[in-house]
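Consider the following assembly input.
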Amino acid sequence: MKIFQYLSSLPENEIQDLYSDAFTCRAVLRSLPPRAKQYLMRLLVVDSISMQSVYQWTTQSSIQAHKDAIRKLLDLKILTRVPNPKGVVSQDQLFLNQRFKDNIKDSLTDLDSVVLKSVKDNQSAQQHIKPMTVEELDKYSKGQWEKVLYYLSDEGKAPPELVSDLLLSSNLTKKNGTSIAITSEGFKFMLKDIYTQIWTLIIVYLNTLESRGRPRKEALIFLFKLSFLTLGKSYYLADLNPNQRDMLFDLKEFGLVYVRSEKSDVFYPTRLAISLATGRTVSLMNDLAQEISTSQKDQGYLILETNFRIYAYTQSSLQISLISLFVKMLYRLPNLAVGILTRESVRSALLHGITADQIVDFVKQNAHPNMVISGYPEVVFEQIRLWESERNRITYKKAVLFDSFPNAESFSKTVTFAKDQYFLVWFDETKKMLVVNDEGSEPIRNYIKKNFT
Amino acid sequence: MSNTRRGANNTANDNGLKQLLDAEDGQGDTDHVLQTNDQGTQKYKWEEKFVRSWETIEEDEKGLRPSLQEDRDTRTRRQLKDDQRVRRGMQRHVCLVIDLSKSLEIHDLKPNRHQAVLIAAENFIKEFFDQNPISQLSLIITKNSKAEKISDLSSNPNRHIQLLKMVSSTIEGDPSIQNSLDVSIATLSYVPKYGSREVIFIYSSLTTCDPGDLSKTITTLKNENIRVSFVHLAAELYVCRHISDATNGTMKVIETEHHLNEALILHCQPPPTIGKVEAALVEMGFPQQHTSQTPMMCVCHEQFKYVGYTCPRCQSKFCELPTDCQICGLSLVSSPHLARSYHHLFQVPIFREVNPKSIQPNLKCYGCLLPIKPNYLNYGCPRCKKIFCFDCDQVVHESIHNCPGCENGLEFLDEKDNREEEENRTTTTINNNDSDNNNKLVQQQQQSIVDQMLVDS
Amino acid sequence: MDNVNEDDDTSLLVIIVDLNAYSWGKQVELAEQNIDSTSGSRFITLSTFFEHLVIFINAYLLLNQENQIAVISSNVGESSFIYPSNHVDTKDKSISFKISQSLNNISKHLIEEIHLTSEENSSSSSFSAAMSLALCYINRIKKDNSTIRSRILVFNISPDVSTQYIPVMNCIFSAQKQSIPVDSCILTSTDSTFLQQASHLTNGIYLRPHRQDHLGQYLLSSFLIDSYSRKFLNVPTLKTVDYRASCFCHKKIVDIGFVCSVCLSIYCKYSSSCTTCGTKFTIKFNINQLKTSSSSSSSQSENK
């Protein structure tokens, strides 16, 4: 679930409230697709415009994308469509949300608006605290986010209350007696890109805020504001209101902001917070996203051999704990972990609700280039699927049971008919019972009606 | 934002250096075996090229540091041009002779000579027409002791490349220099006298299979004023050297695939004319693009088209410029085509390396505003005395062909200096913008420093 | 949103502002004259232009958080960066604020300077230098971030200078080769041939607003479109550009001209020597001879 769907799902009045905040408007504008941005900019200077004229903006080849963009703007309630009184669809007028328009217009003429005043360099020097560098912040946010993922995959660790609550209520983990285990959802979650991961959790977080009786509108606005801060600069906690401060400490768990300690009076936004609202893993975040996902996506590290041994060239304990969900780990070397796929290890993963296909896809996605060249061990994949089908020995199919046939002759004739038409599933001569598959029920019924009534 | 990126870059460099040192100490990172190169692809160490890392270290009073000699060499090689304004044959007629003999099978270039030559030739053809749009090229291949012309003199790069791809798949037999030269002479002798005539060989074999006396051919070449240049893939042959010397051409033996490309690209620059060459006023047509209501037959493809250029003399229609009118023989060009060749005539002066010791702190590259790195190569323009970083130097000479400093009113330079001084006086009184003043001071200092430095070096 | 990476409109915009004091001074006269007529003011003054420009820059920076910008002034005999500026700015201000501040400083300077300048030496801006700087800067940013899409936007007010023809064309070709669109916004009543060619060759937008008091609107609707969005949005296009050459001797546009084989100067009539490079043409060039030689070569090739 992404931010747009979330915003579009909000009730009308709540979203109107959101648009009264200038920074929210800006953040929403930024996170729109390029085409929609351009449309908005053109609409800023007119009162209303007909659908017809908007159509002329796009090239014919991309008419579908054009419709999508307009739909998105309508969904977000930025545009409203007023039907033409004469019923001509192409003459429908489009209106830009007045609050949104005013806010964007203001920010165009506003030269010097800052969300929060940043701490001046010389001031932090006076306090004898070494300011955080960008690299340190990156490292911190990366570490913090990996921790969250780590809680997800490793059953032994007890995460902070907030994180474990979120993971539970987002259905990524489930309580298994006393311990907490990853679900199939959670496994899929691990394979997604970092931006989707964060938003999934944030949206759950916003919903829990609501249930705790705190307004999520304020939280959303705060999140959007964070994205306008400058990386590597520190900001005063005192400038925030108590609600925002509470939220800040919650966000710290995800690595979105850095606060040195409870007593510290400044905080630093990290890359994750700043690029959160842009809506995509753009270059700012790319480095970080790559580092985290290199091992997950782009750059494979797994070698699976036909003897069921798996070699993971990685140092990240996150990745190793992820593999150990379905692999029995044997050795751990500085840059390599060796494990073996056993029936038990795979079954334990299957019991958590992870499917065989998910495991196979995971191995394929993270395959070491050399394994890709030499080919995947299909034998092993087949075995994993077999292990899965062991658990699913029964398949259900719709069928119809006919019984209480009046005589043996009618029964045997019906059986022959069913056999000829390949409908027969099972029959019992002594009990005079006949089972046919779903599509056979109607013809058999007709046959019986025709011949024996 | 850019700050952070630059930071990241620096650390990457540092890491590179650290790795290098670590590797020598035998305590590198955990990934002994797999190492990542610049492109992000992974290779085993034994697959990598042999690197003489100790040779790229230089010593000075501050200790060891990586040498800049390699970068410097690359630059000098690329900018090896005549600095003066010399007369050049702007309308070039070039026969590109490609040796497609058995010798191309050798694997000393990667992936093999054959592929390397084809790639290099294709690049050359593109670059050649990019830089010399009004020149013409003809492709000749030699194999099986024969020479064959595969494309006539024309200015359409795509057609040449297409034809080259069609015939280049087979390699067989020996090449023949004399046959190739004979075909070239036959092709080039029709060229009008004012155009320059060149033959460029991409030669791979160590032998040639010639039917007659090569010295007679050389005499003909001299008489016809044809310049023959060789790019040899393996070694310097006497016969190649002799021909190129006799005809004022060049002879190059290449070291790597990269060097092959560079050697060919150097031929994109029109050579200075030899001796006394006839100059002439050439009649040329400047057709306009027309979009007609009804389709008209084009002369070049014999298809009906709406858009095209019409020859101003005979009104026949062509799809592309530049070309020669096939009906009346008029050269058809557009003014940008002529303009594209102008930079060969008015070249940017070659920048001179600046002595790193005399560089002031806080100095910024004139072109891109990056702070000048004192321990790296920096260049000063001899005309306008502005300082440029290594990258800008490359862009200015290879892509833009203008020095931004000189463009900033060279002719006003003296006059402006006076005015600037006056302004300085006025601004101190009127305007309290310190930084602005500092700025000007720095600039002035910068100029005087460059003067000194250039004298030093 | 589906194609996360393809949908990226992050771009680098280099704005070249023509700050020729003399031309802007003339523009003031024009603006005053035109205000009487019924059509409203067709021309704007420097300060109004700066207001529109700052709004445009603000809008551009608002669109994408990673959008980068550089502003270069093209002035008489001196083109320099306005933003990023040479002097270190420690103030914690937004980019657009810094730009507008430096623009204000510049306009003050210009007013002082305008008394010192006369028509002869100041009717031209060193546009080629500004273009060269822009290309150097783009090259540097591309080194750090190779995927960024860059473009150049030129605000032009002073007339073309024929002496700059070659350097300007060099810049245009360099931009064309790197596929950097050159957009041009002409603020005078006459078209600029340089910029027409620049925009046409590099697939940029060429626009001469008819109502300059609505400049901001023109900017927001046409020049804000990044090079990525241009693929699927309709943009103003230039129908035809006259690529016919003008001869060096009479500045006459020619269909058929004579080109010096040494320096490629164009003449409308046959002459015995080239006035540009001083070459004496040794033989009286016979057109018929060329005809026969080239036609014989072509016929010969046909035979083959």
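Chain C touches chain B through 85 residues (CB under 8 Å). Ask yourself how this observation constrains the way the partners meet.
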